[in-house]
Amino acid sequence: MVCPHCGSGVIAKKGFSYTKHRPTAQRYVCKECKKQFKARFEEEYSDFPKILLMDIETSFYHFVGWGTYKQYIQHHQITKHQYCLSWAAKWLYDKNVQGDIVTTEEAFERDDKRILKSIWELLDQAEIVIGHNVERFDLRKLNWRFKSQGFGPPTPFKIIDTLTVSRRAFFAPSYKQDFLTKYFKLQNKLETNHKLWEDCESGIPEALNKMMEYNKYDVIGLEQLYLEVRPFIRNHPNLGILLDDNVCPVCTSTDLETTSAVHMTTAYKYPILRCGNCKTASIRDRRNSNRLQNDYRMVP
Q1: What pLDDT is attached to residue 90?
Q2: Which candidate, 271, 266, 236, 273, places its Cα nearest to that of 251?
């Protein structure tokens, strides 16, 4: 990459240009002539952090019992263990929704090893993983299945759980993804029923195809929900660190405006910036607006 103004190869990244909250071009600044220029993204967004949105679908447990009344099911009553029916995932801003589902033969044998390998490979690449109830269910269930099928853990990554975010930020009537996507007029879940899971366990091809479609629609809605609630995520991983650039820590935009508000700690006060793209408020690191440093602290 060289500067189109002076031909210098001494350049630095300056965040991304956005259209409708999606990055469309990488910004650069020339260290020689100080002018900025843009370079359009490749399809795979090679410079953007690897942010994976994912969702899994699982089979039933099969139990034996002594009645239909409310009772505690113990582990020795399990006759067939739960396994992963399918997974769907996409990289943030990528149009391609990936997925995998068991075959008819694998459903009969309750064998999810093949599809676990494919989702393991995606998780191993990810720097951040996003899902709805992903921390308490999807990832823990996958870890159990990874261990059961002889896989080690994937490379560590940060987690953003839109269910946890929604519960912390909002006092909503419901925190289910189906309710939130309908309320915010986003991509809705497909309608399903109990029989779809029964037919998938029976290996019926039409049911498996419908389950894969249902799973992928969940991920499309998940991405839209994440972008909707993103400004309310107080502990969002700092994308500026991954890019090694002075950009909005949430969406990587350079459209930052200093506001009149400040964020105060026990020792400093920091000017608050507002991102023009995702509307998230942030503060500058390592710089503060105090004229004199305060060496005193509150007693813990």
Answers
A1: 95
A2: 236
Are residues 128 and 237 in contact, defined by beta-carbon separation less than 8 angstroms? yes
Radius of gyration of the CA atoms of the chain, in A = 24
The pair phi, psi for residue 246, each rounded to 5°, is -90, 85
State the pLDDT at residue 294.
47
Contacts of 17 (CB under 8 A, 6+ apart): 23, 24, 25, 26, 27, 38
165 burial (CB, 10 Å; 0-12 / 13-18 / 19+) is buried
List, for the chain, all residue ranges whose pLDDT scores fall below the cut of 70. Answer: 1-2, 4-9, 15-24, 39-47, 244-245, 284-300
What is the model's pLDDT at position 295? 47
User: How far apart are alpha carbons 130 and 157 in whole angstroms?
Assistant: 10
Rounded to whole angstroms, how far apart are CA atoms 87 and 102?
Answer: 10
Residues whose CB is less than 8 angstroms from the CB of residue 295 and which lie 6 or more positions away in sequence, other chains included: 267
Q: How far apart are CA 149 and CA 57, in angstroms?
A: 17
Contact 78, 62 (CB under 8 A): yes
Beta-bridge mates of residue 167: none
End-to-end CA distance of the chain: 51
Amino acid at 144: W
Are 141 and 147 within 8 A, CB to CB?
no
> What pLDDT is recorded for position 150?
96
